[in-house]
From TrEMBL:
The lineage of its organism: Bacteria, Pseudomonadati, Bacteroidota, Cytophagia, Cytophagales. It comes from Cytophaga hutchinsonii (strain ATCC 33406 / DSM 1761 / CIP 103989 / NBRC 15051 / NCIMB 9469 / D465). It catalyses: GTP + H2O = 7,8-dihydroneopterin 3'-triphosphate + formate + H(+). The gene is folE. Its EC number is 3.5.4.16. The keyword Nucleotide-binding applies. Coiled coil: none annotated. One of its GO terms (biological process) is one-carbon metabolic process. This is GTP cyclohydrolase 1. Zn(2+) binds at C126, H129, C197. Keywords: GTP-binding, Hydrolase, Metal-binding, Nucleotide-binding, One-carbon metabolism, Zinc. Homopolymer. The keyword RNA-binding does not apply. SUPFAM superfamilies: Tetrahydrobiopterin biosynthesis enzymes-like (SSF55620). Pathway: Cofactor biosynthesis; 7,8-dihydroneopterin triphosphate biosynthesis; 7,8-dihydroneopterin triphosphate from GTP: step 1/1.
Amino acid sequence: MEKRIVESDPLRNTPESFNTLSVDEIGDDHLFKGIATPMLPQAFLKTDEEKIASIAGHFKAIMETLGLDLSDDSLAGTPQRVAKMYVQEIFSGLDERNKPKIALFENKYRYGQMLVEKNITFYSNCEHHFVPIFGKVHVAYISSGKVIGLSKLNRIVNYFAKRPQVQERLTMQIAGEMESVLNTKDIAVLIDAKHLCVSSRGIKDDNSATITAYYGGRFSDDAVKNEFLNYLNLNTTYV
Ligand SMILES: [Zn+2]
């Protein structure tokens, strides 16, 4: 099947060798090819309503194949509910029209230190098993002259989380968007997450967490990176 990269690729790609692995070789490993979500050229030819109708039909077939009786009251509405949830909620971030519009402000306080937004809760789904990934995202940037409304950082995280994902790509997509919106390379992104495909099935390790990090520009300097990491360890619970 022909694939097309819809988004630009502002940061680096993963090594070419990843592209030659078969699905069986990749197995449960979370390898990925680049920072753009792989999309088909016809991804947006159908309206959302057409997508919901189509997915509902396919999901009904999956349930029936599993032997479920959809004439039961409790199951009858499930295909439609799942289809709406996919298109309008948990995978709505595939559609660039849902990308948050970001307004920037002049940095009139001349605040030149890093700004850290930590403990941004996110819910995503693993693209290999379609089960949840959830956890916390911590981001930071050093202003290049403009500042961003704090809630916009949460919106950027949530937009990219609402796609079938691998954590590495989610990290890079958030970093790439912050870099382009804030016009600075001085960006840090750290994701601490739990993958239900690891804890509830497969290896069934309920205690493991997955950490991914991106440090750009001045954050690749150890002192700046450590300052960021130290802020994450501060006790900032206020209740
Ligand atoms: Zn998975």
